[in-house]
Amino acid sequence: MCSEWTDPNDPAHHVLTTAIITCAANDTMSPIHHRMPVILDPVDCDEWLESDDTAHLLRPAPDTTLTVMEVGTAVNDARNQGPELIAPVQPEPRLF
């Protein structure tokens, strides 16, 4: 979801805003977090854009939609950039 906001006190000040719509996590995501972004199936995109009755599309994606893999801690700093941030890493060995 994206919109442009104009400051009523400064009409020349425009801000582009976005929002991520979330839903309950599917089985793939639930070990990580209880919520996940809504991921529209491509066949639902026209309905999303053209209809006022789209609440039924706000559902968890099928479990096979996402792949979970461990990545390095560099992703935790927004100053870091580059494809190496999403390269899989081997998890640290744990005793328990």
Task: Supply database-style keywords.
96 residues, mainly beta, two-stranded antiparallel ribbon, two-stranded antiparallel sheet, 1 helix
Give the tally of β-strands.
4
Range of helix content: under 10%
| Spans of at least 5 consecutive residues with low confidence | none
Question: Count of DSSP helices?
Answer: 1
Structural class: mainly beta
Could you explain how this protein is built, in words?
With 96 residues, this protein is mainly beta. The protein has a domain of 61 residues. Helix content is 6%, strand content 22%. The protein has 1 helix and 4 strands. A two-stranded antiparallel ribbon has the order 1-2. A two-stranded antiparallel sheet has the order 3-4. Strand 1 and strand 2 form a beta hairpin.
Blueprint of the fold:
Layout: E1 2-7, E2 10-18, E3 22-24, E4 35-37, H1 45-50
How would you sum up this structure in a few lines?
The chain is mostly beta strands and 96 residues long. It is 6% helix and 22% strand.
